Amino acid sequence: MVRLSDATAPRLRLLMPHTALSSFIQADVASLEMAHEVTLVPCGSLAAIARSVLLAPRGDAVVCWFGSTRYLPLALSARLWGRPVIIISGGYDVASVPALDYGNMYHRGSRLLGRALFRLATVVASISKSAAAEASANAGVRDTQIRLLYLGLDGSLGAGAPSWAAKERMALTVGHADLSSIHRKGILTFVRASRLLPEVPMMVAGPITPDALTVLRAAAGPNVRFEGKVSWDRLCALYAGARTYVQPSRHEAFGYSVAEAMLHGCVPVVSRCYSLPEVVGDSGWYIEDPDDLGQVVAAIHLGLEAPTPGQAPRDRVLAMFSGAGRREALLKLVVEVCQRGVCGTRD
Fold first, then answer.
1. Which residues pair with 294 in a beta bridge?
2. pTM for this one?
3. Mean pLDDT lowest for which of 152-161, 176-185, 336-345?
């Protein structure tokens, strides 16, 4: 087995299956590559999934970002070879929201496969307390297996943004909009509220499917601008220019865009839903019922007209969700899992 010491810890060989590499997954890959050898394992097709099984004996551990059932064959092979499996979980993989017909744990077939994968996990690293509770309730993960590992953001992000008072009296929301997410992330609620805030410029940024755009345009007032997919520089400019960021979600595993906006000094206006209170704390305003447009409009007014009710949004993100803190915690977790004596023997 692999034995690790503070001075002579070997570079572990980590296998990371994936179907797509979002920005936060890429950040974790970069963190792990600082100390270990990371092999990205594509699992986007049946042929790729079959090939992934053959890699299991070549790694010291498997690190899955999301509990995707596509990773089940690799995880099973890894455990048969005596390798540990770490699942970084949060979001669709452990969710079950019947009202939204959402979550891998909602439909029986996907729930059975998903639970089979989570039973193979040595440790499940949840990106929020809310996601940890879903992993326990929906995926059957034991509390002793769960570790809280908040997402982290680069503290330099938004450092040059203007103060809240100097920002434009504008409201912004960001997200990938399709017919499902416009309800789940509250994008449809946001544009509906625009008709009651005709004097307020309201921006929607992020890729939009044609059918979702049709629904959103029909609900929106003339003061709503749909930016569509934007560059990173344009997104940062939108964050820097907006006074308030609005996300009346029905489900949220973390709220990464909320945290990005907070780093740029936006006052967050969010639903009191799932993980959002963990991210926002007392640095923003809450919508108790995102189906009540009166509440939504009143909360947006507060975000536009009133200073933050507690801790400054940027200060909260820097204190709670630093990229350096996540990197340190992730590296420590991987080493601790391997120190338990469940890593494979090197060739």
1. none
2. 0.90
3. 336-345
